[in-house]
Design goal:
Elements lengths: L5 E6 L5 E6 L5 E6 L5 E6 L7 E7 L1 H11 L11 H4 L2 E6 L11 H4 L1 H5 L2 E7 L2 E4 L12 E6 L1 H12 L4
Antiparallel strand pairs: 1-2, 2-3, 3-4, 4-5, 6-9, 7-8, 7-9
């Protein structure tokens, strides 16, 4: 397959996720992603987490700028850089037992309340681009949203409550 050797994802107590990978050069790297958008990027000298060579803390906008710079399409003149615009793109998973399961997207009032746009929904192996307000949500859906960091946080809150 020629990809990265090992990639792991570990949910953290208190929220957030730790991503770990080993590069083709056998370098170990981790990223701790926190719900507030901040990230900690660490590179290790050896196999163990206690042998850190470099650790870099990044605020949400800084992390977005680094991600944007690392993307292969970064230098395409036709693509917008969300970091330069002060926007973030995030995935928000709708829990399987969500009160929004079976209700339409418009009922959430996400755009009205937070200014965040839902640009796509991932459902099983299918991507549904540009869902309208009449799109019926299902537990387990992953909503791809674009907005400000604060707006995305608000959208997470909206999707976590029972309804309007």
């Amino acid at each position: 397959m020629g990809g990265v050797g090992r990639v792991g994802r570990t949910p953290l107590a208190g929220g957030g996720v730790r991503y770990e990978l080993v590069t083709r050069e056998r370098r170990r790297v981790s990223v701790v992603a926190r719900p507030d958008g901040s990230r900690t990027l660490s590179v290790y000298r050896g196999e163990h987490c206690d042998d850190t060579a470099v650790s870099l803390g990044l605020e949400g906008d800084e992390a977005a700028a680094v991600v944007d710079a690392l993307l292969p399409s970064h230098h395409s003149p036709s693509l917008l850089s969300t970091a330069e615009l002060g926007l973030v793109a995030e995935r928000i998973e709708l829990p399987s037992a969500s009160p929004w399961d079976g209700r339409v997207l418009g009922d959430t009032r996400i755009r009205t309340e937070t200014g965040v746009s839902v640009v796509a929904v991932l459902r099983r192996a299918e991507a549904i681009p540009s869902p309208g307000p009449g799109f019926r949500l299902a537990g387990g859906d992953i909503l791809i949203v674009i907005g400000t960091r604060e707006g995305v946080g608000g959208a997470v809150s909206v999707l976590g409550r029972a309804g309007p």
